[in-house]
Amino acid sequence: MNEYIYIYIGGVSLKNPTLTRFFAFHFILALIILFIVILHLLLLHETGTSYPLGLNRNYDKVGFHPYFRIKDIYGAVIVFIIFIFVSFQTSCIFIGVENFIPSNPIITQVHIQPECFFYLLILFCSQFQEKLVVLLLWLYQ
């Protein structure tokens, strides 16, 4: 059982190997999803959609290139410009007021509390000594 703990979470405690694997998994998963979406759009643009009744309706189709590809590129550029504007110009509208309070390294701030989805994990960790059981119970929730 302990070899599974070292493989999946990097040890019996949550330290650097666990965080590295967590970050790598989320980073790679996002890239895989992005690749699948781009592949789906390319295949859709190449073959077009199918007509559900099975009739051949090729005579009134508009080709995807260049109309819809230019439209997709234009939409992506607009979204990217809005993202850049929000990220660099108005990023403070998403930050809470508590984040501007100077920190005291001795006392934990009042507004810092565990998130509700970690309550069950904290309960499991305090009740069970076997870390694999805790991991399975947390994944089952």
UniProtKB/TrEMBL annotation:
Superkingdom: Eukaryota
Localization per record: Mitochondrion inner membrane
Transmembrane domains' residue ranges: 23-44, 73-97, 117-140
Topology within the bilayer: Multi-pass membrane protein
Annotated Gene Ontology cellular component terms: mitochondrial inner membrane
Gene3D superfamilies documented for this protein: Cytochrome Bc1 Complex, Chain C
Domain Cytochrome b/b6 N-terminal region profile: 1-53
Swiss-Prot/TrEMBL GO biological process terms: mitochondrial electron transport, ubiquinol to cytochrome c
InterPro entries hit by this protein: Cyt_b/b6_C, Cyt_b/b6_N, Cytb/b6-like_sf, Di-haem_cyt_TM
Span of domain Cytochrome b/b6 C-terminal region profile: 54-141
Entry-linked Pfam families: Cytochrom_B_N_2
Record-level Gene Ontology MF annotations: metal ion binding; oxidoreductase activity; quinol-cytochrome-c reductase activity
Keywords, alphabetical: Electron transport, Heme, Iron, Membrane, Metal-binding, Mitochondrion, Mitochondrion inner membrane, Respiratory chain, Transmembrane, Transmembrane helix, Transport, Ubiquinone
Chain's role: Component of the ubiquinol-cytochrome c reductase complex (complex III or cytochrome b-c1 complex) that is part of the mitochondrial respiratory chain. The b-c1 complex mediates electron transfer from ubiquinol to cytochrome c. Contributes to the generation of a proton gradient across the mitochondrial membrane that is then used for ATP synthesis.
Subunit description: The main subunits of complex b-c1 are: cytochrome b, cytochrome c1 and the Rieske protein.
Protein name as annotated: Cytochrome b
